[in-house]
Amino acid sequence: MSLHKVGLLRHRLSRWCLVWLVSSVIVPLFIGMPDAIAQDQAAQQRYEFVGEVQSVDKTKKRATIKHEAIKGYMDAMTMPFLIKDEKALDEMQPGDRISATIVVTAEGATWLEKIIITASKNTRAQESSDKPLGVMGVPGDQPTSPQTYAQRFNDPTGLYTCPMHLSIRTKTPGKCPKCGMELMSVEPQIPEEFDLQLAMTPKLPLPNQPLQLHLTVLNPRNGATVKQFALMHDRMFHLFLVSQDLSDFQHIHPQQLEDGSFVIETTLKRPGLYKVYADFYPLEGAPQMLHKYFATRGWRGEVLGGQVSLKSDTQLTKPAVPVTVTKENADKLGVELPALEAKPAGGLNVTLSFDETPVVPGKNVTLKYHLTDAVTGQPVRDLIPYLSAWGHTLILSADQSEVLHSHPETPIDLDAPIATQRGGPDLSFDVLFPAPGIYRVWTQFLRGRQVFTVVYDIQVKRL
Predict the structure, then answer these.
(1) pLDDT value of position 128
(2) What share of the chain is helix, strand, coil (3-state, %, to 5)?
(3) Which of 204, 254, 274, 403 could form a disulfide with 264 if both were Cys (CB 3.0 to 4.6 A apart)?
(4) Which segments in the chain show pLDDT lower than 50?
């Protein structure tokens, strides 16, 4: 074949390839793009949103907002939201009232858009100061009746609380009626997330060998070690230690050193990757739940590739696993020895139910626990208050990206001695799951001389 014919054939082949590429690939791609965009938009749901800004974190593009009930999606509550509009993020200030649209994707991601500041903090303060006293609802020439103890110190709208007794809430500064400490503002001086340093001895821990964890909380503005913390559920620091496969779970409480840092000794049950969740309340900030990864000696896995695969439980009655409280581990577990019974209790069976099913994200769900004695089958009524509550629940998503810490709705009597109080057999925990998926739930109770832990895997379905 001549070079001329070869060139002609190559030219025709190139033209045919170009025509095929345009007609078979590029054109369908562009034709399909509107459909793909429409499908993506259809997978997003939008709801009207009204709330009050509590704090703004521009570095993380988030604002914590106390919002009203979102019809068809979520009950009223206070939580952080992603703000993609940088102009709105820059303009918002704590105290501002806003209206917006909340966008919810099929995967459970949420953010706010179309944000409008309907009333600024300064404007609202000026409006209040301009109103006659009578219009504000308290006539100036009429005496008001004295407040009761509950009205004075248990006002949920109060702006001041005690660092040692967080249940105390008042509208005015003063001293705590229980311990005499100066009340502090519930509005954080530092709304940013604090920093957490973790050091270990040895640096590469071995399973079933002693391990010391040294934790230091740092001020995010100046890097100084934080030394003052509020008392939350009888302890200044709650530490949750969880292995990557979710089989090793520990809820323990480090002791504070003179320099402000915390230290605790423990042992790991298995080799692999671990994650610590630090739950604390610095006096200058807001309550924090910070986390850090660490690995045992010889770990060669992956953070993402090693995620556990969970299956939702179909059997919702389970035996709880006990750990006996001793003089040596009482502080670590957070248990007051004088409050315990003289003898260990029998086994504990737990039955879980829900106030409504299926469980969906973005809506409050009540986890209902019914406790019975493993031997007699009778309802358990001898639970002991544990860390100022009738129980504690930690919830993690399978990839450990979402973490929730909850307590029963029924409170204990903080004014009565723990040793005189007993509870059960029914307890309810209100929980809001942020996204669809399967979550592992650890719930703990104190009975006899043992801390009991029961574990469930719960499926949260898409809206």
Answers:
(1) 43
(2) 15, 40, 45
(3) 254
(4) 1-34, 36-40, 124-125, 127-143
- CA–CA gap between residue 366 and residue 353 (Å, rounded): 8
Model pLDDT, residue 15: 47
Q: Would the pTM of this model clear 0.90, i.e. be above it?
A: no
pLDDT in tens, 296-319: 998 887 776 677 889 999 999 999
Ramachandran region of residue 208, left (φ > 0), alpha (ψ -120 to 50) or beta? left
Q: Kindly state the tokens that stand for 398.
A: 């399978």
Phi, psi for residue 256 in degrees, rounded to 5: -85, 140
- Angle at alpha carbon of residue 177, lines to 172 and 182, rounded to 5°: 55
Output DSSP code: residue 364: E
Q: How far apart are CA 463 and CA 42, in angstroms?
A: 13
Looking at domain 309-463, its CATH class is: mainly beta
The residue ranges of every structural domain in the chain are 45-122, 148-187, 193-307, 309-463
Q: Do 193-307 and 309-463 come out as alike in CATH topology?
A: yes
34, containing H or E segment: helix 27-42
Report DSSP letters for 302-324, one per residue: -TTTTPPP----S--EEEPEEEE
408 φ, ψ (degrees, to nearest 5)? -60, 150
Report d(CA 1, CA 433) in Å as an integer: 72
Instruction: Give the chain's length.
Output: 463
User: 52-63 pLDDT, tens per residue?
Assistant: 998 888 877 888
Q: Tell me the chain's radius of gyration from C-alpha atoms.
A: 28
Give phi and psi for 212, each to the nearest 5. Answer: -105, 125
CATH class in words for 45-122: mainly beta
Tell me which amino acid residue 290 is.
L
CB-based contact 120:96 (threshold 8 Å): yes
Instruction: Give residue 346's identity as a one-letter amino acid code.
Output: G
The strand pairing partners of 395, in sequence order, are 404, 441
Give the max Cα distance, the chain: 114
Q: How many Å apart are CA 449 and CA 333, to the nearest integer? A: 12
Residue with tokens 């029924």: 410
Place of tokens 């439980």: 313
Domain 193-307 is found in CATH 2.130.10.10: no
CA distance 397 to 418: 33
Distance from chain centroid for Cα 62: 15
Match 């692999």 to its residue by tokens: 272
CA distance 221 to 190: 8
Amino acid at 405: H
For 167, phi then psi, to 5°, come to -75, -15
